[in-house]
Amino acid sequence: MKFLIVWLLLLAYAVFFAPGSEGSDPVLDNVFAGNWAAIDPLVLTVFNSLGIFPLIFLTILLRNDQQKWPAWPFSLAAFAGGAFALLPWFAYGDRPAERGLRTPKWLLIVLRSKVWLIFLLIFIFGNLLTLLQGVSFTSYAEAFQESSLVSVMTVDWFILWWLSVYAIHRFYPDAQRKGLAWIPIAGPVLVLLSLKKS
Q1: Residue pLDDT, tens place only, 10-54
Q2: Where are the transmembrane segments (predicted)?
Q3: Residue 22 lies inside a defined structural domain of this protein
Q4: For residues 16 and 14, what is the distance between their CA atoms, to the nearest angstrom?
């Protein structure tokens, strides 16, 4: 029920309450134009991380895809829809089902490998290099008020963070280092790397 409520609140926020200037969205215009230099580094880092989160969810959910609904369509849809795509699965699809693991064996080998997890970490930390250009919370706050894209993606980012922590605690309750999951984006990967048997 909580996931459905969060999903409905997220939809309501995106449609009715997200701040942003009327007319064209300045950040979205720069994204479509490929004018990355004009986008604040923190905004760009958060934007890029929304493309990394789905990889994290693919890794966690497909390693444990035995639930009522298959996880892979929602994980893939998260590349375009973020939490908008994942919350329905957590609300209705994450229920026990008497079935085996759906994920093909070859893909499980990849997703359970340390090479894949290290690749994810490199990808995550590579995205953080954008912040070397400077971090300005004031600029981010201005972009949040001026761009509906930034305001919605910020809320989306926090929900994805919460879902990633939940997913680790849900599927790996006995992980000794599951507290690491609270480290944004990288935390769940670090927990998976710390597992003795994955």
Answers
A1: 999 999 999 876 777 888 888 888 888 888 999 999 999 999 999
A2: 42-62, 74-92, 115-137, 149-167, 179-195
A3: no
A4: 6
Q: Length of the chain, please? A: 198
The answer to whether the predicted template modeling score (pTM) of the entire model surpasses 0.90 is yes
Distances (CA, A) of 182 to 20, 114, 132, 190: 30, 20, 23, 10
Reading the block at residue 122, the tokens are 């490199």
Q: Provide the pLDDT for residue 198.
A: 46
Residue 93 lies in domain: 2-11+40-194
The distance from CA 140 to its chain's CA centroid, rounded to whole angstroms, is 19
For the chain, the domain total comes to 1
DSSP 123-182: HHHHHHGGGGG---HHHHHHHHHH-HHHHHHHHHHHHHHHHHHHHHHHH-TT-TTGGGGG
Indicate whether 113 belongs to any domain: yes
In a domain, 33, yes or no: no
Contacts with 198 (C-beta within 8 Å, 6 or more apart), sequence order: 63, 112, 192
For 54, residues 6+ apart whose C-beta sits below 8 A from its C-beta are: 75, 76, 78, 79, 82
Summarised one tens digit per residue, pLDDT across range 144-198 is 999 999 999 999 999 999 999 999 999 999 999 999 999 999 999 999 999 976 4
